[in-house]
Write a structure and sequence with these properties.
With 259 residues, the chain is of the alpha/beta class. 47% of the residues lie in helices and 15% in strands. The chain has one domain: Rossmann fold. It has a seven-stranded parallel beta sheet with strand order 3-2-1-4-5-6-7, sandwiched between helices. The chain is globular and about 50 Å long. Bound molecules: NADP nicotinamide-adenine-dinucleotide phosphate (NAP).
Length: 259
């Protein structure tokens, strides 16, 4: 789909690279000639990904809710690969199955800390350099949940609305410095996060996870979940020169569920 040199000379930072979507994105960027900086908390998954990629790779295991870890990730990537030309924010945590009546502060804080605060602060630190160099592209992996609310997903939806709003605001500021910012907004994607979120809803509703998975698939006009590779393709398009006047977009991958 993309040429082998489509991202040659690019240095792409990818968070959540130990997860389904981040890993697919790292593989695609690597295949298209980019040097990639990958991060996640799971050491085994990170080193597996590191060893399968062909190009230059900076792999840094970290919990990015920690400020020092965020700084070390950016500094280490810059020292090994050069200045970042692109950032893909795929780090995230999911949760479902909670009635607002049963919400506690921990549940809200946990989701906001990762999906919004840490993602926004890491982006700030990378954006500072891009703004100075007057070049760069940023993609947030938000969600359909960042565009419309669903029953029993209030804390997750709110954290994704927060990051979509952050991305839109940054997009308008950043383009004045030749930095393009966009979001991808997938519906259900075939990764463990989706199954786990539906399992939580099934537990709350006293139903089988398999039944909810089937219903979720059947509710999508294309009849299936999006694959991580399809999210990676959309991200690559938004990062690429094919999208030079696409700014502040929230690109839906819903299989026709939301039009
Ligand atoms: N799956 C879906 O249906 C779906 C739909 C729409 C949007 N999304 C969004 O897509 C993104 C990627 O999700 P996914 O499906 O690929 O899920 P995933 O496989 O669970 O990946 C989540 C990634 O985030 C990382 N992460 C979580 N907390 C972290 C922290 N405190 N510090 C550093 N890294 C952290 C995880 O690292 P470790 O695993 O190493 O801890 C993992 O790499 C998320 O933002 C999610 O909200 C997913």
């Amino acid at each position: 789909m993309f040429r082998e040199d489509a991202f040659a000379d690019e240095v792409v930072l990818i968070t959540g690279a130990t997860g389904g979507i981040g890993r697919a994105t790292a593989r695609l960027m690597d295949r298209c000639g980019a040097d990639v900086a990958i991060t996640g908390r799971n050491a085994e998954k990170l080193s597996e990904l590191d060893s399968e990629l062909d190009g230059q790779v900076y792999a840094y295991r970290a919990d990015l809710t920690n400020e020092e870890a965020r700084e070390e990730f950016i500094t280490g990537a810059r020292e090994m690969l050069g200045n970042p030309t692109a950032l893909v924010n795929s780090m995230g945590v999911g949760s479902g199955g909670t009635s607002v009546a049963d919400l506690d502060q921990d549940a809200i804080d946990k989701l906001m800390e990762v999906n919004y605060t840490a993602t926004a602060l890491l982006t700030r630190d990378v954006y500072r350099g891009m703004r100075e160099r007057e070049a760069g592209a940023i993609v947030f992996v938000s969600s359909l949940s960042g565009l419309r609310g669903s029953k029993h997903y209030a804390p997750y939806d709110a954290s994704k609305f927060a990051i979509t709003g952050f991305a839109q605001s940054l997009a308008r500021e950043a383009i004045e410095h030749n930095v393009r910012v966009n979001s991808v907004c997938p519906g259900w994607v075939d990764t463990p996060m989706a199954t786990e979120m539906l399992r939580e809803v099934a537990a709350t509703e006293g139903r089988e996870t398999e039944t909810l998975l089937r219903e979720a698939r059947e509710s999508i006009p294309s009849g299936r979940f999006t694959t991580p590779e399809e999210v990676a393709n959309a991200t690559a398009f938004l990062l690429s020169d094919a999208a030079t006047n696409v700014i502040g977009e929230s690109l839906k991958l819903s299989g026709g569920a939301v039009v």
